[in-house]
From TrEMBL:
It comes from Pseudomonas parafulva. Residues 105-283 form the ATP-grasp domain. This is Carbamoyl-phosphate synthase large subunit. Keywords: ATP-binding, Nucleotide-binding. Pfam families: ATPgrasp_Ter (PF15632).
Length: 422
């Protein structure tokens, strides 16, 4: 029987990465939940978007009810505050939680506690009690409870530091680190063995998310930092920490997190699926990695999905320049068609192809059986005259779309829009 795995909250970038990492596993049945209706609705077949916030008095009872209803075995928390809260209440919820140690999650949640825990290490940045202690300006003000660079402010002098600290909730005054930045994805197994240490660069960052990453050569200092963190904290599953070089080029710690990072996809691109390793580890299986070092660059971009509010059960689709181009299959169209087939949609090929469409399909190595019906128009009739019922229409030719939209009143799309339809 597959494990029932809950991702909560499920609309964030790291929640999407957990979804992609686990969706094809025969060991997992995925569920997603959030306290606001979010992008998780587009990803998770089993989804609930109206849980109370974790600081609401009714959250615990609602969360327990959801866990029981879905018979959840294991939870991935995708936000640091949620991670800390669930770890504190794990016995009440009676469910497996990736990185469930309450003390560890509490230390990782607050930078002040993190820096205090490792204060004897040379890679902890200088934390100043007040502006008078700052030796070198500029310095940095950041919130104790922030993550991913949120609330970061560079201050040039004591006056700027005082003003910024007054405007910041739980401010910390820290040494400025001007050098390169790296994120280090790690994995600790049920025997507390550190199974993976994977540094990656943050070469282009948007909203705290690394959009371009490369993989630097093995660095003994980074490995040593990971080992010390793993020795002192009770970690199990995926976790990560962020580093930045100081004025002398030495690595200094920015933060530690007990959850999956959104850009852990970079490791998965190299063959190291950290969320799936966590599932197997939860099942008591010893895990090992098989990294593909030939992968040396990961580029990301924003993915856009659109929701069609008008219900449909049939897709009418053109052939030439829509399913095939120059006699070859258009891979993105086939990807769309198979997605729709998995959702139980009826597929109808509606074409004016000059030759025999069955021969053209065979030459393009597309099975005719993919389509529930193939309508070959040879007498010039309008495509709109063949469309019935609740449907959508796809054609690269604008006049055909105008005809169908005008006479059938259904949604019509060009080929470029197929990637949006979920």
């Amino acid at each position: 029987m597959p494990l029932n795995v809950l991702v909560f909250p499920c609309g964030s970038e790291n929640a999407a990465e957990i979804h992609q990492a686990l969706i094809h596993s025969v060991h997992v049945r995925l569920h997603g939940a959030s306290s606001v209706d979010d992008h998780g609705r587009q990803l998770y077949e089993r989804y609930q978007g109206d849980l109370p916030r974790i600081d609401a008095p009714e959250f615990d009872d609602a969360f327990v009810a959801l866990l029981r209803h879905w018979q959840i075995d294991l939870v991935f928390a995708t936000h640091d505050t949620v991670q800390a809260y669930l770890s504190q209440s794990r016995e009440r919820f009676n469910v497996g939680l990736i990185n469930d140690d309450a003390r560890t999650c509490a230390i990782a949640r607050r930078k002040s506690l993190t820096y205090a825990e490792f204060a004897d290490q040379p890679w902890v940045p200088h934390v100043y009690a007040n502006a008078a202690q700052v030796v070198h300006w500029p310095a940095v003000v950041k919130p104790d409870l922030g993550q991913g660079g949120q609330g970061f402010a560079l201050v040039a002098d004591p006056q700027a530091a005082l003003a910024t600290m007054a405007a910041t909730t739980l401010p910390l005054l820290i040494e400025y680190l001007p050098g390169e930045e790296a994120t280090v994805d790690c994995f600790t197994d049920f025997e507390h063995a550190l199974r993976w240490v994977g540094p990656r660069t943050r070469e282009r960052v948007r909203a705290g998310i690394s959009m371009r990453s490369t993989f630097p050569a093995a660095d003994p200092q980074i490995t040593q930092i990971a080992e010390v963190i793993n020795q002192r904290l009770r970690l199990r599953g995926p976790w990560f920490f962020q580093l930045k070089r100081d004025h002398s080029g030495q690595w200094k710690l920015l933060e530690i997190s007990c959850r999956v990072a959104g850009s852990m996809v970079a490791q998965r691109a190299r063959g190291v699926n950290l969320p799936l390793m966590a599932v197997h580890d939860y099942m008591g299986r010893k895990v090992r990695v098989l990294p593909q070092y030939a992968v040396d660059l990961v580029e990301r971009r924003i993915l856009t999905l659109a929701q069609i509010t008008q219900p449909f059960d049939t897709i009418y689709i053109d052939f030439d320049e829509t399913v095939i181009r120059d006699g070859l299959a258009i891979a993105s169209t086939l990807h769309f068609l198979y997605r729709m087939l998995a959702r139980g949609k009826r597929l109808v090929l509606l074409t004016r192809h000059a030759g025999d469409p069955l021969i053209a399909l065979r030459k393009a190595r597309i099975a005719a059986e993919l389509f529930d019906d193939i309508i070959h128009i040879t007498d010039g009739r309008a495509k709109s005259s063949f469309i019935v019922g609740k449907a959508i229409f796809i054609d690269n030719h604008f006049p055909e779309r105008v005809d169908v939209a005008t006479h059938c009143g259904i949604p019509v799309f060009d080929v470029d829009a197929l990637e949006f339809i979920s």
